[in-house]
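User: Please fill in residues for this 552-position structure.
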């Protein structure tokens, strides 16, 4: 779950400024404030029932007590996330537990509280059950229940244990859907953005309602598009795979609208072959499934699928009496078919530095740290279809230790420069993944500045085109001044003495200059320079060069 903001510590019991202000109030004003305080303090342990602002029988909005303005009239921002997709796309599956994350921010807020409820039917139905989640944001939540609209129907609310201090807060609630579909359900949320004066005046209330539809399978069978089975790098549109490579099948009706499911592991610790009831068969053999969307499934070609012509099918309701099969799509399988994945298409960044920043022009990708590589850097590219590794990996098996390629020849190239074997740091399975490979190389000095295409030939099979590396070759700096170094006209050197950086240069006429930026010193001499104060002896030679030596 992606959180909306940072976690917060438990709130304090009140600021010193509030206590000082109370002492300065007149007796009448104190009586007025104390008359309101019980209302505000009564809610500091959670909002009262029936105040989620939802359109349900007997439900109220908090503006009845918190008299600041009309609901949703301030500058605060209230968001609700349900599961991984946007809340508007989420569909509940009977019996499944989803995370409801309430995130709120308001620059004017001092204390923040909330209330949430989930209802069905006429508004008095309680679909499933609410509970505080096990996360830090869930520890701030408590659950209450009561009668709905004067009826005997019991409904639940989630609310804050104590208001969160500051201008941002998040609360997390676990909702377990009912065991059977009850039709659409409504999530109602209200947030109080309090000004912190411990009275209900001046606070602002924000509300949101979200309708969640039940999961429903597509009414038509799944269908694979023409040419819809390719390797999962996508950009190369490679219609030939390899055993254990990651591939993708594209089409429609693979799953219900809004589905976005990720792989799970089976009892053996391998990637499961069925995801939300959907499987992919390669030559009638179920394949590990990584991701499922309504129009795409990412899967791994089985390790024993063989080579040559193959048939791929997507099966919905896999293994059940009601399973529905797609059309049979052709696909070729070779012994190996290397392709690389891209992290971005513009620019086409494909490699990572050791610190995980992207190998691309500096600041060329919004929201991502990037910089060019320089000779000597180690960079890593990721791909699939590189063939067997040693020791071998079975279908769906995660690489939990280094597994180098079993190929007899691995020849990476940057542009037209073929890398030496000593520049290949690692070529094999990527750690903790199935079907993913990585190639880590050291950038040699023979590669010039610019953007170069990266490729690799594995046992004579060339990788698909696409990946590019941004290379920068810094201008060489002056050499380090060595003892008894002779500096000829037009040259320079640098040294450090007593933590002071010294640059010594000789121009074309034979004049020497010394620069010490930390001391603000810059001196020149045609024939002599006295640097004895800094422990350095400098003399000019008959040929116009200068000799630098440290004094004993």
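Assistant: Residues filled in for all 552 positions:
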């Amino acid at each position: 779950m992606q959180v909306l903001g940072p976690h917060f510590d438990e709130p304090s019991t009140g600021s010193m400024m509030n206590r000082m202000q109370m002492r300065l109030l007149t007796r009448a004003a104190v009586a007025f404030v104390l008359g309101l305080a019980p209302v505000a303090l009564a809610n500091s342990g959670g909002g009262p029932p029936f105040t989620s602002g939802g359109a349900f029988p007997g439900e109220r909005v908090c503006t009845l007590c918190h008299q600041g303005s009309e609901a949703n009239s301030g500058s605060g921002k209230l968001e609700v996330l349900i599961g991984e997709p946007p809340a508007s796309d989420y569909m509940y599956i009977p019996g499944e537990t989803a995370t409801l994350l309430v995130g709120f921010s308001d620059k004017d807020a001092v204390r923040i509280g909330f209330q949430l409820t989930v209802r069905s039917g006429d508004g008095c139905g309680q679909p499933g059950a609410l509970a505080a989640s096990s996360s830090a944001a869930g520890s701030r939540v408590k659950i209450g229940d009561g009668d709905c609209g004067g009826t005997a129907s019991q409904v639940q609310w989630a609310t804050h244990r104590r208001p969160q201090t500051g201008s941002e807060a998040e609360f997390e609630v676990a909702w377990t859907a009912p065991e059977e579909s009850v039709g659409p359900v409504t999530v109602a949320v209200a947030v109080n953005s309090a000004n912190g004066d411990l009275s209900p005046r001046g606070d602002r209330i924000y509300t949101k309602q979200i309708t969640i539809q039940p999961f429903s399978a597509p009414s038509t069978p799944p269908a694979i598009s023409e040419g819809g089975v390719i390797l999962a790098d996508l950009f190369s549109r490679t219609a030939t795979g390899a055993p254990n490579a990651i591939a993708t099948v594209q089409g429609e009706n693979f799953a219900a609208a809004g589905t976005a499911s990720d792989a799970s592991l089976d009892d053996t610790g391998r990637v499961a072959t069925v995801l939300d009831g959907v499987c992919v068969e390669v030559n009638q053999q179920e394949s590990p499934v990584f991701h499922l969307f309504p129009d795409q499934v990412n899967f791994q070609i089985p390790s024993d699928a063989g080579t040559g012509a193959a048939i791929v099918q997507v099966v919905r309701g896999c293994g059940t009496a009601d399973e529905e099969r797609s059309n049979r799509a052709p696909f070729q399988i070779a012994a190996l078919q290397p392709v690389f994945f891209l992290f971005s298409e513009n620019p086409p960044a494909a490699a990572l530095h050791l610190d995980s920043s992207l190998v691309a022009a500096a600041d060329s990708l919004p929201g991502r740290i990037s910089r060019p590589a320089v000779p000597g850097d180690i960079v890593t590219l990721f791909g699939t279809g590189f063939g067997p590794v040693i020791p071998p990996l079975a279908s769906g098996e995660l690489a939990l230790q280094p597994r180098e390629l079993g190929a007899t020849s691995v020849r990476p190239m940057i542009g037209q420069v073929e890398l030496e074997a000593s520049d290949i740091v690692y070529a094999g399975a990527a750690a903790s993944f199935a079907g993913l490979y990585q190639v880590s190389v050291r950038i040699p000095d023979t590669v010039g500045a610019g953007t170069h295409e990266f490729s690799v030939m594995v046992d004579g099979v060339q990788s698909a085109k696409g990946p590019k590396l941004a290379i920068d070759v810094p201008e060489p700096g002056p050499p380090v001044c060595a003892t008894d170094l002779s500096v000829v006209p037009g040259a320079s050197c640098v040294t450090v003495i007593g933590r002071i950086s010294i640059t010594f240069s000789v121009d074309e006429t034979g004049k020497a200059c010394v620069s010490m930026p930390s001391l603000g010193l810059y001196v020149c001499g045609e024939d002599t320079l006295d640097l004895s104060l800094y422990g350095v002896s400098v003399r000019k030679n008959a040929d116009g060069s200068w000799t630098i030596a440290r004094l004993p």
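For context: Residues 27-42 form the longest helix (16 residues).
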